[in-house]
Amino acid sequence: MSRRPTPAEPACGDVPQALAGAPGPAAVPADDEVFQVAPGAHEPLADLAREAGARLHDSSRARRRWAAWMMLAVAIVGGAIGTSALAASAGFTRAGPMAMMAAGYLVCFIALTRALRVIPISVAYAVWSGVGIALVSGIGWVWLGQQLSRGELAGIALILIGTVVIQWFSRSHDASH
After folding, report:
1. Which of 77, 66, 87 is nearest to 128 (CA)?
2. How does pLDDT run along the chain (177 residues), one tens digit per residue?
3. Rounded Cα distance, 156 and 116, in Å
4. CA-to-CA distance for 83 and 139, rounded, in angstroms?
């Protein structure tokens, strides 16, 4: 059996007037006030939620990271073009491939320099070299007619797996920056 509250007792769900801070019904906080913490107060979960939200919604940081990874991709392609042109230059005796080599390496190093502004050098270099090796090997196989043995293909696969592992584990390190 439930009993009815007396006028001095609040009903279930009612906020006592002394706790509400104002006469009349309790005010409902606005959405933006729900997670606000008083200045100087320290509440670990609120601090964690605020920091996580700021990182999730920091679009300028996300754009910088996206641009850095795009620059790294440009560097990889430029390096692969430069290296392939180097092979086609026949010991620096053909002007066309030499010019392509110079342009490819110039684009590569400018783009890599831009990527290193955001991506740690250990991660950028591992991805750049690993994916670059696989790309140049593929270019040599498809366009230059070079043969790759099973052992060489396995080695390239291991390089790519190592590159993915480095990138995967760098995410926890990168989140602290």
Report:
1. 77
2. 555 555 555 555 555 554 445 555 555 556 556 556 566 666 666 666 667 666 655 667 888 999 999 999 999 999 999 999 999 999 999 999 999 999 999 999 999 999 999 999 989 999 999 999 999 999 999 988 889 999 999 999 999 998 888 888 876 444 444
3. 24
4. 10
| Rounded-to-integer distance, Cα 75 and Cα 90, Å | 24
Residue type present at position 48: L
User: Please, are residues 124 and 115 in contact by the beta-carbon 8 Å criterion?
Assistant: yes
Sign for the pseudo-dihedral over CA of 167, 57, 63, 120: negative
Half-sphere exposure of 80 (CA within 13 A, CB side): 20
CA–CA gap between residue 30 and residue 113 (Å, rounded): 47
3-class secondary-structure state, position 43 = coil
Nearest to 131 by CA among 57, 176, 69: 69
